[in-house]
Specification:
The chain is of the alpha/beta class. Helix content is 50%, strand content 14%.
């Protein structure tokens, strides 16, 4: 899997894929090439059975400074080339949907996705990490829903996903005020699962967790992610019916036999891809 000149780097370590936002000279701001590459990468990882867990991180001093302003300018310029007002707005709508889909690909990816966040995580960076399954950061990491300060209504996922991670009132405050939140407060609010004092310990502990997840049944991990995402968007009764149908199809797997035998023999289970 290669993403030449896209600003995205893939490091594969056994069953763990590390995706690195690799535009450190731009604080990993997302231009069109990097944005598209993110969606393509998660689609490919989803289809690669040997990859069981994904870590998403940024190169350099920051995780992600948000959207590259050149992408905003290009989007506006392309829309203005259309003389028909309806077609102009339809072109813009399709473009927004494409940007959304690149991040929704993280949720569609059946593998657990862990974000390791340091430095700035601004605007589209927050859109990106709220689509991940687990979020870990340094205590000094800075989160900011910046769009309102650019006279933009955030439209790539933060306003839909953030209220499921923090309270609705906190999501409103952060989105309306664009105030900065540091890692320690982000943990207290529920935006991140855990924060660390240094970037080195952040990466070390995130990789340890990724390995512990990779040792578990791939079917169980994928099913748990799918059921929780479904539960987020549906009622309890709908969720119960969905998981009943899911387990009716997948409960009686080879992994169940392997796990039971390993437990009885008091040894680690080894699951196939």
């Amino acid at each position: 899997m290669t993403f030449e000149n896209s600003g995205l780097q893939l490091n594969q370590d056994g069953p763990i894929a590390e995706l690195v936002l690799n535009r450190p000279e731009k604080a990993n701001a997302l231009d069109g090439a990097l944005w598209s590459a993110i969606g393509e990468a998660f689609q490919e990882i989803d289809e690669t059975s040997s990859t069981r867990v994904v870590i998403l991180r940024g190169a350099g001093k920051h995780f992600c400074a948000g959207i590259d302003l050149s992408l905003l300018g290009k989007t506006q310029q392309e829309a203005m080339q259309e003389s028909c007002e309806a077609r102009k707005r339809e072109r813009l709508r399709r473009h927004i949907l494409e940007l959304q889909d690149s991040f929704t690909a993280i949720e569609r990816c059946r593998k657990p996705v862990l974000a390791a966040i340091h430095g700035a995580c601004i605007g589209a960076g927050v859109d990106l990490v709220t689509a991940c399954d687990l979020r870990y950061s340094t205590a000094a990491a800075v989160f900011q829903v910046k769009e309102v300060d650019l006279a933009i209504t955030a439209d790539v996922g933060t306003l839909q996903r953030l209220p499921h991670l923090v309270t609705h009132g906190v999501a409103l405050e952060l989105s309306l005020t664009a105030r900065k939140v540091f890692g320690s407060e982000a943990q207290a609010l529920g935006l991140v699962n855990r924060c660390f004092e240094a970037q080195e310990s952040l990466l070390e502990e995130t990789r340890k967790l990724a390995q512990s997840l990779a040792d578990k049944s791939p079917l169980a991990l994928q099913g748990t992610k799918e059921i929780l995402l479904h539960a987020r968007d549906h009622s309890v009764s709908e969720g119960l019916r969905y998981v009943a149908a899911w387990n009716a199809a997948l409960l009686l797997s080879d992994d169940l036999t392997v796990a039971a035998e390993a437990m009885m023999q008091k040894r680690p289970a080894q699951f196939r891809d």
